[in-house]
Design a protein that fits this description.
Amino acid/polyamine transporter I, 2 strands, 77% helix
């Protein structure tokens, strides 16, 4: 397979040089023109854009919920199958390949790129929201049952399913690039299915969809990060929360991301990711030590058990009465993860050479899920204990009033050293913002450069800037609803792409052992 493919196609053979840039034709130009037009039109017609995005999200989540639910379950089962399959012994990069990064550095980049901003934004908010509005028909007046399902539903959204989505894309890209010598771009993952046609218009469409999915998935996260960072600055220092300050914050952080882009992976993304993980670990340990320590430690095991127990019902989409939960949360999340998957998947692929398929899936799927359980239990569990055991209503009132960006700071408020821990929270959000933008621009640039990993830095700078501009345009043109609608709209077609990718990975792995 590799010999045939690489004889007929070489990395960058369709590229053109323009103003010193090395651009893939037509992926870069189509993606660039449409995204520039989107930013301009959204900013010019803000009211119409707000109405459109306000209609788009509920329509997509109600009409296509079954697509996202089936796809999400399929990805988890496929990954679990690979762990126990004989193909788990295949080493990414060949039998003699050695890992490029140590486990600590590898894990740091996984988390910083994969879920950093999301964990900060939803870690307190979501358990409390689901506690107040329990899914699966649970009575909110039953405190113990509401607490159980609140934590289970939160972990459901942040454990196996999202990481399975990332693992599918990452394994496909890593295997076809490092083992078969194909370009590091999304179209390469479909070579077993479509053969040489992936180098033509079919491949152009796949890569262009990946660019849109990545950009809008990133914009959603960057918008959430900007909302939360600004809320923290307002909470601590009284910085006004206005559209102007949101724009200035996104522009400032995008500028830092551009500097990181210029420095490259090792000096930029890797170093920032390690700083992030150190700060996140400090904040996590702090909350565990000064919060309800016993409840948190016990809760990790209890919540993990409850998650597994409730997983079948939460994964089901037939005959559900709690459609508000399924459409407002689960469907959005699956679309968001799918939209993020080209970005996170390619980034994980780039840093995962030398791992076996089994090691790769376990580390990308199981270990992050366990860490997610610990994080949600520490932060969300502390907020629930504050309300149930201590009568503290700061978080519950904030969530009821739907000020989600403040929930983390309200949880930290009654704890010792609240000012310091809240400031660390703001810094974490900002640095996660930078690493997401940095690694995202790196991935989009690779796709739009035809799989080149050493394209001119100016191209990555272009995408880093436009990630910030898209986030600004969506925030102004409809707020978080617009961000979420854009993410879902790109996640829908890409869900089908990912299912086909699983088939292609299966064919590729099976072919190597014949």
């Amino acid at each position: 397979m590799s010999t045939v493919a690489t004889k007929k196609y070489k990395v960058g053979q369709d590229n053109v040089t323009f103003l010193g840039l090395d651009l893939h034709n037509p992926v870069f130009f189509i993606s660039g023109v449409i995204i520039v037009a989107f930013v301009i039109l959204t900013l010019m017609f803000q009211a119409s854009a707000g109405d459109f995005f306000g209609w788009l999200r509920p329509w997509l989540t109600t009409q296509f919920d079954w697509v996202f639910m089936i796809a999400g379950n399929f990805f988890v089962l496929f990954c679990l199958f690979l762990i126990v399959s004989p193909w788990g012994n295949i080493r990414i990069g060949g039998a003699d390949a050695k890992p490029d990064y140590s486990y600590p550095g590898w894990f740091a980049m996984l988390f910083a790129a994969g879920m950093g901003i999301g964990l900060m934004f939803f870690g307190v908010l979501e358990p409390v929201y689901h506690f107040q509005n329990p899914p699966l028909g649970i009575d909110a007046g039953n405190i113990d049952a509401a607490r159980e399902i609140g934590m289970s539903a939160t972990i459901f959204h942040w454990a196996l399913h999202p990481w399975a989505i990332y693992a599918v894309v990452a394994l496909a890209l890593a295997f076809f690039h490092y083992n078969l010598g194909l370009p590091l771009t999304i179209r390469s993952a479909f070579y077993p299915l479509f053969g040489e046609r992936v180098w033509g218009w079919l491949g152009h469409v796949i890569d262009t969809l990946a660019v849109f999915a990545t950009l809008f998935g990133l914009a959603t996260s960057l918008g959430l990060g900007a909302e939360q960072a600004l809320a923290g600055l307002n909470h601590l220092f009284g910085v006004p929360v206005t559209d102007v300050t949101k724009i200035l914050l996104i522009l400032g952080i995008t500028g830092i991301a551009v500097v990181s882009v210029v420095l490259g992976i090792d000096a930029g993304v890797k170093r920032l990711s390690e700083i992030n993980m150190a700060l996140a670990l400090c904040l996590l340990v702090f909350v565990i030590l000064v919060g309800p320590t016993g409840d948190i430690i016990k809760g990790v095991f209890v919540n993990l058990f409850d998650y597994v127990k409730n997983l079948p019902n939460l994964s089901n989409w037939v005959g559900r009465d709690d459609t508000k939960f399924m459409h407002g949360w689960t469907t959005f999340y699956w679309a968001w993860w799918i939209a993020w998957s080209p970005f996170v998947g390619m980034f994980i692929a780039r840093v995962s050479r030398g791992r076996t398929v089994r090691e790769f899936i376990i580390c990308v799927l199981i270990i992050p899920s366990i860490v997610g359980v610990i994080w949600m239990t520490a932060f969300g569990g502390t907020a629930l204990s504050q309300f149930i055991n201590d009568g503290y209503t700061g978080v519950t009132e904030t969530v009821s009033a739907w000020k989600p960006e403040l929930s983390l700071y309200k949880m930290l408020e009654p704890l010792p050293l609240a000012g310091i821990s809240s400031f660390i929270g703001v810094v974490l959000v900002i640095v996660f913002f930078v690493t997401s933008s940095d690694s995202g621009s790196l991935v989009i640039d690779t796709i739009t450069a035809g799989g080149k990993v050493d394209a001119p830095v100016a191209q990555r700078v272009f995408w880093a800037i436009f990630e910030g501009l898209v986030a600004i345009a969506l925030l102004i043109g409809g707020g978080l609803t617009a961000l979420q609608a854009a993410s879902i709209s790109t996640g829908l077609p890409f869900a089908i792409v990912l299912v086909l990718m699983c088939v292609s990975v299966f064919m590729g792995l099976r072919a190597t052992t014949r």
